[in-house]
């Protein structure tokens, strides 16, 4: 320890002692707590200081763990509203609660900080007397930073058992009155938790800000060109005719998670983003948010207005779903929803059984219009399943395989009068669990939904057999080919145990399974996992969502299997569901296999692999090559064929930075695919793991938003040594030795410098898709 570091630590220890001493009669010394006004203008002294000096530190050191629903203690440091709101001990992600809890969404579920206090949130800033001493002594944020700086942190190596990094760990969430006790019982719990302290310079910046009352400003308002586009789009979405109103409702219910921007009118690398929201007020007036649990719940007003609200929070990779709006997009929407030949006699009810069922609510809109609209931004729609509130947790994600490709039925073949009539006739069978709201008794409805799904599949299969009697249409011509230009036509979904990613293109080695989505299936998945899912719902709601998704996955897989020769269809399905429970086996083997033969000829003894290749060839001209694993050259290419024992030891998502001779860096992602005998087990996934079938894929760039390991390769020799060592590991001890040599562990003394480098490289690779990574899953190995 050098003299300067020792001197600084001594001051920190002294300050900690002073803060602790001052807590004994806190109210007597500083008065009772009350909410303070902290908002200032962005172009004034305090506001400019916050935006230029404080906000970057909070983003780079704090928001990487404290953002969105899964932030520890619901502490969102990504916006002034979140900082001012503070902490709450109640966990949002709780798969065992018997009753739905009250939502706690920033901006929506309370209008001001005082209301958040009434809802049980406690401040991380000083809310007592406003003077420099009290502002530091009374701030949980400040004392948490001090606690970390006063407690020696390991330099390299592993952290001890006192650190708990499990996602469901007990959270302390102390108020200032409780902080002294926490510091004594958990001296290791300073912030950033389980990571090195921030630098002395960064600490001084935050200290100065807090000392002066923690004034905060919103980011600068949008550019005039952007505001003009906002006005134009709001006018388009809020025209008075019933046709316009129904179309706007449909568009909103599919786009409300998107971060909307206007590329034609802002050429900055960091444009302003907007959220499509429901408001009681029309364009031109301040937005008055309609705060309902779901986007289709009754707004309790006679007229809903769809508005574009400026997104002022820090952009997080795990929730960022960018959507570009342009003149061309508006023309496309007009053609799909307004120029299309249909009439709207009256707007649909908001009653749950109607509003939760898109086949009832939007029956008037032609299937082709709705399906084309979804296909135009298919990646965005599926990102909603993954980056929306459903993304976190085993209950939500152990219903899918670790890697699979997604293609779509061509809308010309999926919007015939017969298909439209089928959907209208079976709209009750297509009902989704969300119609029963957020408090549901577990299991009671499973049989009901299973029977409804069976009725619909039977009718769908019967119609398909009639339409495909000659077998000539059951070819890759059935598959949407992106209209010759749209790279949304082929997607890949990766599950990373309790998070997931979707990207354009057929990425990685040929997967075990594939989904072929038609309109009805695509729509139901959206209304099940996005529009209809309530992250605050009870165990029954969450369980029903998981169980119903089984049906939809099976249907998507079945559509793919039906392109295979008849004599291998059941064999392939049985392989995918080895060792599955008898009841599920019976369900999946009901008469859902088409009687119609395939119209394709197969020449190999591996028809499933051949089918993957045929679909890839059919979509070749539009498939994105951004994450082409075959483009990786040199020693790193060998990571695409690792032995399973090495793969078994890998975390789900590893980021690799490779330094080039010119000092620049290339980025790669190494993804571990967990293999399963089947994915039909809700509570005992481990028993279904097929460890010897695990694989890994290395791709250029970044896939995933929650890095679990960060590897730094300094040069070519370093890279070759890393690959050689990784290929031979077969024990936890050997993995630890690999990490010691090449990983940027939580305890790395330059962790934050490498974190900054990682984000700088990510900006180059991700562009408009860039957002801050989340370190809550970073391993301690």
Question: Brief description of this entry?
Answer:
It holds the Pfam family CTI. By secondary structure, this protein is an alpha/beta fold.
Keywords:
4 domains; four-stranded mixed sheet; disordered N terminus; alpha/beta; 12 strands; 781 residues; Fatty_acid_cis-trans_isomerase; 29 helices
Explain how this protein is built.
The strands form 4 sheets. Strands 7-6-5-8 form a 4-stranded mixed sheet. The chain folds into 4 domains: 209 residues, no CATH class; 127 residues, no CATH class; 232 residues, no CATH class; 141 residues, 2-Layer Sandwich (Nonspecific Lipid-transfer Protein, Chain A), CATH 3.30.1050. Helix 3 crosses helix 9, helix 16 packs parallel to helix 21 and helix 21 runs antiparallel to helix 22. It is built from 29 helices and 12 strands. The N terminus is likely disordered. It is of the alpha/beta class.
């Amino acid at each position: 320890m050098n003299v300067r570091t020792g001197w600084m630590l001594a001051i920190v220890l002294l300050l900690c002692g002073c803060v602790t001493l001052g807590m004994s009669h806190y109210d007597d010394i500083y008065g009772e707590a009350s909410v303070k006004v902290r908002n200032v203008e962005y172009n004034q002294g305090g506001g400019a200081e916050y935006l230029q000096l404080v906000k970057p530190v909070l983003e780079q050191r704090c928001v990487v763990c404290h953002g969105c629903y899964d932030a520890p203690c619901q502490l969102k440091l990504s916006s002034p509203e979140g900082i001012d709101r503070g902490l709450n001990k109640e966990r949002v992600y709780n798969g065992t609660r018997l009753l739905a809890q009250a939502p706690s969404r920033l901006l929506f579920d309370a209008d001001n900080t005082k209301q958040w206090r009434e809802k049980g949130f406690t401040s991380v800033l000083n809310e007592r007397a406003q003077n420099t001493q009290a502002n530091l002594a009374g701030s949980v944020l400040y004392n948490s930073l001090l606690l970390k700086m006063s407690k020696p942190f390991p330099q390299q190596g592993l952290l001890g058992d006192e650190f708990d990094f499990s996602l469901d760990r007990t959270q302390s969430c102390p108020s200032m009155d409780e902080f002294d006790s926490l510091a004594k019982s958990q001296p290791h719990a300073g912030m950033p938790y389980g990571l090195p302290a921030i630098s002395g310079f960064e600490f001084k910046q935050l200290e100065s800000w807090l000392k002066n009352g923690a004034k905060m400003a919103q980011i600068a308002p949008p550019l005039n060109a952007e505001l003009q586009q906002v006005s134009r789009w709001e006018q388009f979405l809020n025209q008075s005719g019933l046709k316009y109103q129904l179309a706007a409702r449909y568009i909103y219910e599919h786009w409300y998670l998107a971060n909307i921007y206007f590329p034609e009118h802002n050429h900055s690398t960091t444009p302003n983003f907007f959220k499509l929201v429901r408001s009681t007020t029309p364009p031109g007036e301040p937005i008055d948010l309609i705060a309902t649990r779901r986007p289709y719940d009754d707004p309790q007003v006679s007229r809903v207005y769809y508005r574009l609200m400026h997104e002022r929070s820090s952009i997080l990779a795990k929730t960022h779903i960018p959507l570009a709006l342009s003149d061309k997009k508006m023309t496309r929407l007009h053609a799909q929803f307004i120029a299309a030949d249909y009439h709207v006699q009256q707007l649909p009810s908001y009653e749950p059984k109607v509003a939760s069922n898109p086949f009832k609510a939007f029956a008037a809109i032609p299937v082709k219009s709705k399906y084309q609209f979804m296909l135009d931004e298919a990646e965005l729609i599926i990102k909603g399943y993954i980056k929306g509130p459903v993304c976190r947790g085993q209950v939500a994600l152990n219903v899918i395989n670790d890697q699979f490709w997604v293609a779509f039925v061509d809308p010309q073949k999926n919007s015939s009068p017969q298909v439209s009539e089928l959907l209208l006739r079976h709209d009750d069978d297509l009902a989704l669990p969300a119609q029963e709201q957020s408090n549901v008794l577990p299991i009671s409805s499973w049989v009901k939904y299973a029977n409804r799904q069976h009725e619909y599949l039977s009718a769908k299969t019967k119609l398909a057999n009639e339409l495909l009697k000659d077998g000539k249409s059951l070819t890759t011509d059935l598959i949407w080919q992106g209209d010759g230009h749209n790279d949304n036509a082929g997607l890949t979904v990766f599950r990373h145990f309790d998070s997931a990613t979707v990207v354009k293109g057929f990425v990685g080695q040929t997967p075990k399974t594939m989904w072929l989505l038609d309109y009805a299936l695509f729509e139901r998945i959206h209304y099940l996992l996005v529009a209809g899912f309530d992250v605050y719902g009870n165990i029954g709601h969450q369980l029903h969502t998981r169980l119903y998704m089984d049906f939809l996955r099976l249907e998507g897989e079945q559509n793919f299997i039906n392109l295979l020769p008849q004599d291998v269809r059941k064999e392939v399905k049985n392989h995918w569901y080895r060792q599955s429970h008898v009841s599920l086996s019976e369900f999946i083997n009901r008469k859902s296999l088409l009687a119609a033969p395939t119209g394709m000829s197969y020449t190999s003894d591996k028809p499933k692999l051949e089918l993957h290749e045929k679909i890839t060839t059919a979509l070749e001209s539009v498939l994105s090559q951004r994450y082409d694993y075959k483009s990786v050259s040199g020693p790193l290419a060998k990571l695409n064929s690792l032995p399973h024992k090495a793969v078994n030891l890998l975390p789900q998502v590893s980021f690799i930075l490779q330094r080039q001779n010119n000092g620049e860096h290339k980025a790669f992602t190494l993804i571990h695919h967990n293999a399963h005998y089947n994915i039909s087990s809700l509570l005992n996934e481990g028993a279904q793991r097929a460890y010897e079938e695990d694989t890994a894929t290395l791709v250029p760039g970044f896939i995933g938003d929650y890095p679990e390991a960060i590897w730094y390769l300094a040069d070519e020799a370093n890279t070759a040594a890393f690959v050689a060592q990784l290929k031979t590991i077969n024990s936890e001890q050997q993995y630890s030795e690999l990490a010691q040599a090449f990983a940027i562990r939580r305890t790395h003394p330059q962790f934050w410098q490498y974190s900054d480098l990682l984000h700088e490289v990510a900006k180059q690779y991700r562009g408009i898709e860039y957002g801050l990574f989340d370190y809550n899953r970073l391993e301690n190995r």
